[in-house]
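Input.
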Amino acid sequence: MGFTININAQIASVEKTFFGIQTGFAGIWLNNETKLTKNIALRSEIGIENDFAVGDHYSGTGFILQPVLNVEPRFYYNLEKRNSNGKKTSKNSGNYLSIKTSYHPNWFVINLDENITKIADLSIIPTWGIKRQIGNHFNFETGIGLGYRIVYLKPYYRTANSQNIDNFAVNRNQYTPYIHLRIGYTF
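Output.
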């Protein structure tokens, strides 16, 4: 005489895909997270944000808003632990490590002086963060990192006596800190 016990343990994993909107003290973003592996999700994002590390190429401009495109693979490293402790893992609630890649295109800048030319920049920032789901749809997250940014300055003309002397562009490379605190809604 024998018997069989079937135990179905739920394995913690990132969610297949979901969309959301978030806001914080620096802007507003629409995002999507898509599962790549059990613990890795690819977050893609489009938004409009303030650039706190603008540097001397926007000196004296104050608060500006500009569009941003982000791609960020996230490794959620504590989903199993959270699940085994009975904590939420829905909508990828957990701690993560990521490589945040951001591109500010030179489309437009809100609140930029007319005589300053918009420039583009690309940054790559290793980031540590936490994300928590509140109820079924609301969430908050925070993150911190330090990375590198290349600022692509547009070509401009130096003139002397109404003659073009040269046409040149200067790219600037800089270390850039990153910190965010956001609240959001997931669909």
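The first strand starts at residue 17 and ends at 24.
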